[in-house]
């Protein structure tokens, strides 16, 4: 049995399949997981919920990810944000600049849990 950490992770993404897989992975490792299907909805949820970390996975050039990450950091700069990117994508300037950690989606399964453990103090 996995010990519950008690930390809440908000996952923001526009792909429901990846969001569900990420939800299952993080829940399995003991985190409370909240999810949002769009960046706008994610920012609103972030403002309303007690969140200890955020994982942002929005497809495209990174423009939306940059805007969302910037708004999250403006609201609560102390909350770590992880941005997931697709390898080989030409990202817009500054797309990942405000992220605490950037992870390539191909390596997400092996590195996301470790990154969250490093960013969040033991609960």
Describe this protein's structure:
This protein has a 5-stranded parallel β-sheet, sandwiched between helices. It has helices at residues 16-28, 39-48, 63-75, 108-119, and strands spanning 8-13, 32-36, 53-57, 81-85, 101-104. The relative contact order is 0.19. With 123 residues, the protein is of the alpha/beta class. Helix 2 packs parallel to helix 3 (63-75).
Helix content: 25-40%
The tally of helices reads 4
Number of beta strands = 5
Uncertain stretches: 1-5
Describe the global form. globular
Q: Termini, distance in Å?
A: 16 Å
Order of helices and strands: EHEHEHEEH
Report the major sheet: 5 strands, parallel
Rg over CA atoms, rounded to whole Å, is 13 Å
Strand content: 15-25%
Structural class, from helix and strand content?
alpha/beta
Strand order across the largest sheet: 2-1-3-4-5
**Average pLDDT reading:** 85
Which key terms come to mind for this protein?
123 residues; alpha/beta; disordered N terminus
Write the layout of secondary structure elements.
Blueprint: E1 8-13, H1 16-28, E2 32-36, H2 39-48, E3 53-57, H3 63-75, E4 81-85, E5 101-104, H4 108-119
Parallel strand pairs: 1-2, 1-3, 3-4, 4-5
Helix pairs in contact: 2-3
């Amino acid at each position: 049995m996995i010990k519950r950490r008690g930390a809440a992770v908000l996952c923001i993404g526009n792909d429901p399949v990846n969001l569900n897989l990420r939800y299952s992975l993080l829940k399995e490792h003991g985190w409370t997981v909240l999810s949002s299907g769009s960046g706008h909805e994610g920012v609103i949820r972030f403002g309303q919920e007690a969140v200890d970390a955020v994982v942002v996975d929005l497809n495209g050039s990174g423009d939306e990810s940059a805007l969302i990450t910037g708004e999250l950091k403006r609201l609560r700069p102390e909350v770590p944000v992880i941005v997931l990117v697709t390898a080989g994508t030409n990202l817009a300037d500054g797309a990942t600049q405000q992220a605490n950690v950037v992870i390539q989606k191909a390596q997400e399964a092996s590195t996301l849990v470790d990154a969250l453990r490093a960013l969040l103090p033991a609960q």
